[in-house]
């Protein structure tokens, strides 16, 4: 059943860049981006970046296209499909593969019609066709995908996904080319984490909506902090591994402290050092009469702490022995890692040792970093109090908060609604022109939508070599927060003020009606660039 | 620093009921509500309910008024103060007591000016003057409050609070009358919990905004559930003890299962029975191919389970012995309570025994009921699987979510903004007419604001006798969910459909601009009545 707001949003007409309003040609950008062709991509690594230029509307032949969601949800996914559907030439057919890439391999698809799409326009979620995390990696999977595409006689396949899914798209594009199959494979950059960016991709979709939803909650909580004046809120933010979400939310709300994983890594910080830095903040604020505050903790920060990183690596090795028990594990650790392990409260120790992923590894996402830090900060503050160190005489009461699942499937902001609809439209045009092995890109996103530029970046240009499960692989590199980039520098420049002053801003809920400055804002991180 | 939305909201002009737009007279309602005068209130229990009737604007004498926030935050508090300030006759003075009732006792106050209020109009939080939980109970506190009121020569004192704070207001009103001090004491019904209602109070302020914020998150999460199809979300909702918030959110979102504490109490359910009912849901859904879902759990539900209630009572007695340790505690329990205790995972056992409130009691609010239920459901499902009971062959993966602090200080919805501003205005008028021992009431709230009725209910009429820390006391009764009331009956009538169908509705974020059906909605619970 649709809410009043859902119904109202169905009526919203996404704004389209001027260049995409009629037909386009694609011109090659003068400079090739993939300078050294990575070995697995002999063909697609020779492609050059594309720029769309408008031309008069032409009558195109009907197309047969498939589309799939891959990986975690991000707001706007349904609009990619709607934009794609609406842009396909008359007589075209659009298939949705069900429940992620598994739908391609297992040949599970559904033909999408205008009627089916009606209730999904400008709506959150991926539930029109579902999503999944299956990776198309093995030869038999590639063959199955090929058969799927051939059986449906597809001219194109649009893969809506993050770094791993677009890596898959690249392998698939190369595979189809080598087998002489004329099916375009086009990627669309999706992920709330914001780590699929750079080289022509300004931002992935879903990031804006997720950060706005989290910032609403963080801003409300900050207002609670200054009203009740009794709690420290330790707020963990979803998103692995990069700290883009935390940085964006910090720029929006101005919390007292924000951990940035990339900075922690650059400074080779350990868990005790981070605990110390939080305790220092608490003591400084207590001296100013403030026993409350707001601290942002990116989910991925735990992986950037050098001692925890080492501990996890050792545990992963020890966990290979299926008979290992808690005691054996602890005995097997190096002296440094044992010390680190013993620092950790028992409940978190269990999260580290009991919960393993399907490969037997420690499940980093299950570690409740916000609670770990709360416990360690509390005990360190107790020590300082007893030693009379720094004259700390405050009271410390903390509350853990997790901003997570509620941010992935919200009603997309106007930015994400427009961005996604236009990305879908662009994907249709790339397929129409027979382009393959590309990711669709829109740029100039801080400008009015009509002025956005459209183009495509060869997926091969995004690749780098990386160790995955002990094997060297070509994959799309996750874009971490650039410590020399403008968003971080702006944050670094402002944050000293935010420590003691309560300079919180309350962004409030996403607005869909009213003045443009309320409805059409773009991420702060983009505005900084 | 104000966000764009905060700035836009400052400009919002709250709508005022027609009857409050000029001056009013107060007429007595024909029937006295407090039939049996409770002993502590010989004077105010003789008062009759009042009804405001409009009259031509009259020039009134300047007033000196104090205002205080008491207890937990609720959206709209600042608007009560703004409405009060704007309605006071020219030349009046308004003092804000700082950080709750402690500010009255300690004579800490600040004179509020138009300039100070400017940035707080239609904003969330209580930070203009802060709040606190001090209760004015002892003789010396009453005397201090009297001195405070006399020193500032106050004509009136407005107490913005929940059931306990308004109980305090009643005692203070009676005390002032008996000492011959002409200072009106007027209560304003505040609490997100929605348990200050009945006898002329339709709803407390803050409930609407909190439920809308929680429902946004729950709706988003439900959309995530049907998109990823892999998690059961166990969502705990803030609010003690009544389940009004859970009921309202259920009516808005249609989750698969919603626990209602009052129903659990009526049916004398135990923890294992509730676990069984959740497992039954999971099994039914698994049979329909659905290994995901959304379950709402009111924070207060734990107190309604008869076995847990007994366990907590026993623990509270045992905890009186300050030397009790974990083992002693367990040994001291009755057989039934020991069995119940042993059912509970160790981490929650510790929450039950380690965290005590200032009176040495178990801190019920610290019990993570959502995690307790997740753990027990998981182990019960495992047993069913092994026994082959009911053919359960699903996979169960659950995520805990807590909708809490972010709901108390959001930007107030139009409903709460209008309601609070008008309540403040009404409070000013009650003081102008020398009324005391009343709580300000607006009714007909499902009608357009201009048609709302205004009046006041004697605080004494809300009282009942209750055991508090072993002593019989007259206090305002918390209004629980009425199992024969229309909101619950409507829910009970619909919920069977919601179990297996994914009938989720996504209300989305609160809107402040656009069509009235989006911006001006009132709680479903009110519409049902």
Question: How would you sum up this structure, described in words?
Answer:
- The structure is a homodimer of 529-residue chains.
- The first copy, chain A, has helices at residues 4-10, 77-87, 102-105, 114-118, 139-151, 163-178, 207-228, 244-253, 261-266, 271-287, 306-318, 326-332, 335-343, 346-353, 369-387, 414-432, 486-500, 516-519, 524-528; strands at 23-28, 50-55, 64-69, 93-97, 109-112, 156-161, 184-189, 232-237, 257-258, 293-298, 398-403, 438-443, 453-458, 463-468, 471-476.
- In chain A, the strands form 3 sheets. Chain A has a 9-stranded mixed β-sheet, sandwiched between helices. The first copy, chain A, has a 4-stranded parallel β-sheet with strand order 9-10-8-11, sandwiched between helices. A two-stranded antiparallel sheet of chain A has the order 14-15.
- With 529 residues, chain A is of the alpha/beta class.
- Chain A is globular.
- The model of chain A has no long low-confidence stretch (mean pLDDT 94).
- Chain A folds into 2 domains: 34-206 and 409-476, Rossmann fold (3-Layer(aba) Sandwich), CATH 3.40.50; 212-404 and 485-528, Rossmann fold.
- Chain A has 19 helices and 15 strands.
- In chain A, 40% of the residues lie in helices and 16% in strands.
- Chains A and B meet through helix 1, helix 7 and strand 11 of A and helix 1, helix 7 and strand 11 of B.
């Amino acid at each position: 059943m649709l809410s009043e707001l859902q119904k109202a949003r169905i009526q919203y007409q996404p704004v389209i860049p001027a260049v995409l309003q009629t037909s386009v040609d694609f011109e090659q950008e003068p400079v090739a981006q993939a300078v050294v062709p990575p070995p697995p991509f002999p063909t697609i690594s020779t492609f050059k970046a594309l720029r769309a230029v408008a031309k008069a509307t032409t009558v195109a032949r009907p197309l047969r296209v498939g589309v799939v969601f891959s990986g975690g949800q991000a707001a706007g996914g349904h609009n990619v499909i709607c934009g794609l559907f609406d842009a396909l030439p008359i007589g075209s057919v659009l298939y949705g593969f069900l429940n992620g890439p598994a739908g391609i391999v297992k040949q599970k698809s559904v033909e999408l019609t205008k009627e089916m799409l009606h209730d999904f326009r400008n709506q959150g979620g991926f539930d029109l066709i579902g999503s999944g995390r299956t990776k198309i990696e093995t030869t038999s999977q590639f063959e199955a995908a090929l058969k799927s595409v051939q059986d449906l006689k597809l001219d194109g396949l649009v893969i809506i996904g993050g770094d791993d899914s677009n890596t898959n798209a690249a392998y698939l594009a190369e595979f189809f080319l080598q087998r002489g199959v004329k099916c375009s494979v086009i990627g669309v950059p999706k992920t709330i984490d914001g780590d699929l960016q750079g080289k022509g991709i300004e931002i992935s979709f879903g990031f804006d909506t997720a950060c706005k939803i989290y910032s609403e909650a963080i801003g409300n909580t900050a207002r609670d902090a200054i009203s009740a004046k009794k709690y420290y809120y330790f707020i963990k933010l979803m998103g692995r591994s990069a700290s883009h979400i935390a940085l964006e939310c910090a720029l929006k709300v101005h919390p007292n402290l924000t951990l940035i994983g990339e900075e922690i890594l650059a400074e080779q910080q350990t868990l005790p050092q981070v605990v110390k830095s939080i305790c220092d903040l608490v003591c400084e604020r207590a001296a100013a009469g403030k026993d409350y505050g707001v601290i942002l903790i990116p989910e991925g920060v735990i992986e950037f702490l050098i001692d925890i990183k080492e501990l996890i690596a050792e545990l992963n090795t020890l966990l290979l022995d299926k008979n290992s028990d808690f005691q054996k594990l602890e005995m097997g650790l190096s002296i440094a890692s044992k010390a680190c392990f013993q620092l950790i409260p028992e409940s978190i120790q269990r999260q580290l040792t009991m919960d393993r992923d399907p490969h037997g590894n420690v499940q980093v996402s299950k570690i409740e970093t916000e609670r770990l830090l709360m416990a360690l900060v509390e005990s360190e503050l107790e020590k300082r109090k007893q030693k009379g160190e720094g004259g700390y005489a405050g009271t410390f009461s903390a509350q853990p908060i997790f901003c997570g699942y509620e941010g992935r499937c919200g009603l997309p902001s106007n930015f994400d609604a427009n961005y996604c609809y236009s990305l879908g439209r662009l994907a249709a045009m790339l397929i129409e022109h027979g382009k393959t092995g590309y990711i669709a890109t829109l740029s100039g996103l801080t400008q009015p939508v009509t002025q956005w530029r459209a183009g495509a970046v060869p997926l091969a240009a995004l690749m780098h070599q990386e160790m995955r499960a002990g094997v060297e692989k070509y994959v799309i590199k996750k874009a971490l927060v650039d410590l020399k980039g403008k968003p971080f520098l702006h944050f670094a420049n402002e944050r000293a003020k935010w420590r003691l002053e309560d300079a919180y801003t309350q962004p409030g809920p996403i607005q869909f009606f009213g003045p443009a400055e309320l409805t059409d804002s773009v991420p702060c991180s983009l505005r900084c660039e």
